[in-house]
């Protein structure tokens, strides 16, 4: 090893030269045992967490790819202008660049580095080189302007805290003539539109009114290529318009933004339909992982060029999203940033409506609330800030949402207690107070009910998100569904109470001096609203799953993995610690869960099938939400889970203790993200 070390220092000062350290590293490796590492005297655990593995492309930012710099890549022909002297090939390659840039942009929106996604395109790193290529230059210009607009809105909304790499530009220059990017794009679009019209005129043997040079050399491909490029240019134009419209204050550009979004979807559909017209030659099968319509690798991309820009952070290994991975149900960081910015402007909803007005509508407070100074009470002002924070939290991703919801539960609980104390200190006992004060007291009571309802809604959301984030093991599903059931019961109770108060107020106002019909109003009061029944279907599912899992555990039909590190009671506390600290619900403990599930059995479940109740309620309440597609979709999912679990329960009841080893029972989330479906398969 000493000889290897001596060979390294082959120069000093200005005459020093680089020497291969591989012999030294190899010698060091030979002398190390498993788990050992070479370190200095000041090396500690914190430094170990930040250590880099030399020569690992995922860790060592000094690892060089094919080129050392952008200029070297350009000199090496990595990003030629023109791309090809064959105009047909040039158009094909330009379309591939457009497609791959879109895939890179979608990957960036998922939270990856801008330098290693969108700006892995060498043409974007040297925009002055593309001026002679009108098509590529127009597309590149609008891409740069789009990136700048996206970074601006995400920074303003502060949603980039979820993924701090998103807004880091690593010295990349995004400054340009943003206002001119659309005019450049429109000019190119108009040229290609004329080329398309000329092509169609020739194919129909009509006279061409103007002398237009075709897009490329192959007449048979002209129309397809013109349409393919127009779809891509128009998508970029409409997407940029979406960003600009959403920037308008007080949501004034929302309706126009929706129209542009519809146009974006239409153009994407056209791109997919036209993708088969310029696929890779030779009848090759195109991979599902493709990032271009043709399936070819695009020209002019090298992610390793910008890898060292992320130092001292190790460069990430990034897989660019394929076309099939673009459409996902969960909105990404950019969409949620726009949502937050749209909802909250200057501390008001849409920049127009005061938060107390929003609370008044949500809590269905009477209109006379405007005549009182309730909104000036300190606890009500604090409630308004909690509502603003809640709206911001709901614009975060699932992981951040759950973390923040758990933290603000106690704040909402404290505000509820403060409101309750303010009510008692101001009015004391309800009896004997003047009628004017009674109105104010009733408003505070109704507000109190709404706050408690929101507390249970936040708790329910907190528990549900745990399934999306896969925080629960199968053996813990029973206790989680039991807690969801208990919380949901309280939520429905508060919701029904608030709706009943609101309905009574409306009937009193409409009835005026009319004579009261004995028994008539009482009959109306016990009717449940569609919203309450909607939540009741969730309660039936949660209760059914709780008892099914408990029965299977009690009758030894599912094997629970041993937990050497903690008991069921400890895991109960770990999962629900934040709820327990906030007293949600009151007097709720592991002993309560154990006591309510220890006698569960399949025979008892066969007599009272909670899943059939959920299915029945979901079917009955559907008609009340005919104009609400989201709730209709949720009710269909509830029906599916209830139906499949009811069938599985019937099968398990028939099999009973005779469940042989060939039958495997599992719980899957194939129909609903939060409510599991029992699946019985024969192995």
Automatic annotation (TrEMBL):
One of the record's GO cellular component terms: NatC complex
Keyword Cytoplasm: yes
Main location: cytoplasm
Subcellular location: Cytoplasm
Keyword Cytoplasm carried by entry: yes
Family: Belongs to the MAK10 family.
Protein name, per record: N-alpha-acetyltransferase 35, NatC auxiliary subunit isoform X3
Organism of origin: Punica granatum (Pomegranate)
Annotated gene: LOC116197018
């Amino acid at each position: 090893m000493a000889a290897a070390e001596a060979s390294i220092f082959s120069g000093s000062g200005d005459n020093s030269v680089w020497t291969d350290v591989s012999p030294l590293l190899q010698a060091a490796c030979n002398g190390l045992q498993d788990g050992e590492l070479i370190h200095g005297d000041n090396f500690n655990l914190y430094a170990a967490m930040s250590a880099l593995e030399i020569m690992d492309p995922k860790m060592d930012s000094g690892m060089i790819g094919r080129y050392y710099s952008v200029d070297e890549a350009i000199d090496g022909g990595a990003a030629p202008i023109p791309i090809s002297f064959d105009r047909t090939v040039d158009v094909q390659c330009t379309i591939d660049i457009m497609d791959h840039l879109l895939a890179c942009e979608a990957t960036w929106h998922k939270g990856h580095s801008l330098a290693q996604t969108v700006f892995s395109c060498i043409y974007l790193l040297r925009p002055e080189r593309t001026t002679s290529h009108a098509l590529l230059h127009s597309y590149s210009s609008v891409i740069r302007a789009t990136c700048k607009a996206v970074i601006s809105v995400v920074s303003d909304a502060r949603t980039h805290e979820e993924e701090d790499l998103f807004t880091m530009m690593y010295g990349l220059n995004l400054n340009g003539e943003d206002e001119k990017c659309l005019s450049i794009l429109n000019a190119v679009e108009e040229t290609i539109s004329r080329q398309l019209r000329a092509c169609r005129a020739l194919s129909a043997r009509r006279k061409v009114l103007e002398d237009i040079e075709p897009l490329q050399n192959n007449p048979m491909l002209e129309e397809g290529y013109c349409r393919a490029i127009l779809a891509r240019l128009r998508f970029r134009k409409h997407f940029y318009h979406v960003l600009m419209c959403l920037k308008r204050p007080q949501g004034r550009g929302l309706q126009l933004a929706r129209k542009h979004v519809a146009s974006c979807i239409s153009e994407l559909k056209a791109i997919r339909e036209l993708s088969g017209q310029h696929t890779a030659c030779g009848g090759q099968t195109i991979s599902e992982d493709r990032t271009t319509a043709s399936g070819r690798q695009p020209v002019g991309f090298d992610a390793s060029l910008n890898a060292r820009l992320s130092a001292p952070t190790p460069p990430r290994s990034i897989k660019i999203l394929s076309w099939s991975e673009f459409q996902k149900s969960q909105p990404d960081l950019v969409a949620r940033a726009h949502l937050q910015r749209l909802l909250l402007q200057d501390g008001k909803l849409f920049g127009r409506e005061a938060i107390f007005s929003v609370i008044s509508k949500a809590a269905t407070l009477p209109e006379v609330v405007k005549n009182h100074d309730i909104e000036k009470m300190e606890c009500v002002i604090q409630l308004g800030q909690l509502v603003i924070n809640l709206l911001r939290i709901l614009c975060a991703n699932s992981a951040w949402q759950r973390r923040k919801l758990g933290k603000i539960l106690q704040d909402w609980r404290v505000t509820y207690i403060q409101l309750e104390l303010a009510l008692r200190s101001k009015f004391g006992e309800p009896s004997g107070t003047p009628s004017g004060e009674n109105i104010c007291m009733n408003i505070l009571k109704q507000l109190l009910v709404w706050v408690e309802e929101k507390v249970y809604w936040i708790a329910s959301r907190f528990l549900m998100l745990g399934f999306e984030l896969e925080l629960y093991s199968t053996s813990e599903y029973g206790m989680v569904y039991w807690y969801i059931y208990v919380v949901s019961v309280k939520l429905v109770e508060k919701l029904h109470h608030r709706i009943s108060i609101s309905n009574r107020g409306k009937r009193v106002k409409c009835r005026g001096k009319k004579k009261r019909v004995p028994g008539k109003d009482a009959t109306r009061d016990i009717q449940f609203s569609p919203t309450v029944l909607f939540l009741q279907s969730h309660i039936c599912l949660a209760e059914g799953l709780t008892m099914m899992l408990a029965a299977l555990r009690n009758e030894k039909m599912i094997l629970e993995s041993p937990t050497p590190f903690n008991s069921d009671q400890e895991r109960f506390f770990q999962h629900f610690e934040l709820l327990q600290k906030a007293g949600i619900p009151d007097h709720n403990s592991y002993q309560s869960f154990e006591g309510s599930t220890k006698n569960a059995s399949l025979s008892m479940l066969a007599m009272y099938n909670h899943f059939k109740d959920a299915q029945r309620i979901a079917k009955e309440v559907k008609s009340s939400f005919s104009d609400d597609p989201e709730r209709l979709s949720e009710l269909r999912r509830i029906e599916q889970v209830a139906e499949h679990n009811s069938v599985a329960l019937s099968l398990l009841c028939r099999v009973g203790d005779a469940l042989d080893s060939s039958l495997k029972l599992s719980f899957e989330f194939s129909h609903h993200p939060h409510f599991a479906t029992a699946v019985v398969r024969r192995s």
